[in-house]
Amino acid sequence: MKAVHFGAGNIGRGFIGLLLHEAGYEVVFADVNADLIDAIQSADSYDVHEVGEGGRTKTVTGFRAINSAVDEEALVSDIATADIVTTAVGPNVLRFVAPVIARGLLARSAGCAPLAVMACENAISATDTLAAEIRSAAGERATEVENGAVFANTAVDRIVPGQDPAAGIDVTVETFCEWVIEAEPFAGAAPVIPGATFVDALGPYIERKLFTVNTGHATAAYAGFAAGHTRIAEAFADPAVRDLVERVLRQTSALLVAKHELDPTKQDAYREKILVRFANDALPDTVVRVGRQPLRKLSRDERFIGPAAQLAERGMLTDDLVEAVGVAIGFDVPEDPESVEMQQLLRDLTPEEFVERVTGLSADHPLSPALVEIVSTR
């Protein structure tokens, strides 16, 4: 069995690639980072170090790597004979990997089993986005692509911090991981991946994760940055930072319980588990790494505006989430292009214009007045 995974970075190697390896797949990593691909190609194995309670080291073998920028034909050939294609490249990069996946699908032999395509990104319905880009790239042959693949959305959860440059291709991760995949597209013939969970309704899992893990993690990063902290665990040890994170996640939990009819007790337990994960001092994660790309994180369907807008539409409290947005717009890191752009927008636009441009909310949305007010104070 063979899986092609786009994105040979830390998440690709330390999470999805690891689970695919443990499921018995030969993993072919595809990436445009030439130095990284060279390092993977020259190695027979790499280690994934799980840190925290119950942590252990796992060794990955049986992999290959392809530089997709210079060896697209080899990548097309591997996709044409693969069982699974996965991605961990970031939602904004999906449109760039779609054309080669389309080519690989069109090169598959007649009668072979459909290719399982799953985007493993921190975004809602990322596989749907990837599928649309693949169909577009296939043009008049879009129907062939549709018939030759099964597109399944996923929810993924594992904290993979920035790594020590001296670690080579080894990866340090937290012990917790969750890969949830919608089962319906496979019509009873889902691939065997023991480390993944197949569910009938993925929506609650996606929003539970995005609006708890990602919202909380980003809140800790922005509040920690504002307080002068460097590491996430250090920031989370600050009572003021932790207080804001806890208040924000109580509001997102209220939405999740109301919208998806989750058991409040189970959601409380899930939230508390997430807070313990943020406090893991063995993870060398930084507030700058977690906070990068603030414009994406403040967009309409993302971790702050997504839940806050839905709460406002239901007439529920949003004040703590709005406070977190106010902290987020103070993220000023010259090395992060989106941070630089955001600060320029704050200087160039009125608060009303900034809110509409960045969050995608119209002036008549019930959340907009509170956002305009918080932007006005910065």
UniProtKB/TrEMBL annotation:
<dbReference type="InterPro" id="IPR013118">
    <property type="entry name" value="Mannitol_DH_C"/>
</dbReference>
<feature type="domain" description="Mannitol dehydrogenase C-terminal">
    <location>
        <begin position="202"/>
        <end position="343"/>
    </location>
</feature>
<dbReference type="InterPro" id="IPR023028">
    <property type="entry name" value="Mannitol_1_phos_5_DH"/>
</dbReference>
<dbReference type="InterPro" id="IPR008927">
    <property type="entry name" value="6-PGluconate_DH-like_C_sf"/>
</dbReference>
<feature type="domain" description="Mannitol dehydrogenase N-terminal">
    <location>
        <begin position="1"/>
        <end position="193"/>
    </location>
</feature>
<dbReference type="GO" id="GO:0008926">
    <property type="term" value="F:mannitol-1-phosphate 5-dehydrogenase activity"/>
</dbReference>
<dbReference type="InterPro" id="IPR013328">
    <property type="entry name" value="6PGD_dom2"/>
</dbReference>
<dbReference type="InterPro" id="IPR000669">
    <property type="entry name" value="Mannitol_DH"/>
</dbReference>
<dbReference type="Pfam" id="PF08125">
    <property type="entry name" value="Mannitol_dh_C"/>
</dbReference>
<feature type="binding site">
    <location>
        <begin position="3"/>
        <end position="14"/>
    </location>
    <ligand>
        <name>NAD(+)</name>
    </ligand>
</feature>
<keyword id="KW-0520">NAD</keyword>
<dbReference type="InterPro" id="IPR036291">
    <property type="entry name" value="NAD(P)-bd_dom_sf"/>
</dbReference>
<dbReference type="Pfam" id="PF01232">
    <property type="entry name" value="Mannitol_dh"/>
</dbReference>
<protein>
    <recommendedName>
        <fullName>Mannitol-1-phosphate 5-dehydrogenase</fullName>
        <ecNumber>1.1.1.17</ecNumber>
    </recommendedName>
</protein>
<dbReference type="InterPro" id="IPR013131">
    <property type="entry name" value="Mannitol_DH_N"/>
</dbReference>
<dbReference type="GO" id="GO:0005829">
    <property type="term" value="C:cytosol"/>
</dbReference>
<dbReference type="GO" id="GO:0019592">
    <property type="term" value="P:mannitol catabolic process"/>
</dbReference>
<comment type="similarity">
    <text>Belongs to the mannitol dehydrogenase family.</text>
</comment>
<keyword id="KW-0560">Oxidoreductase</keyword>
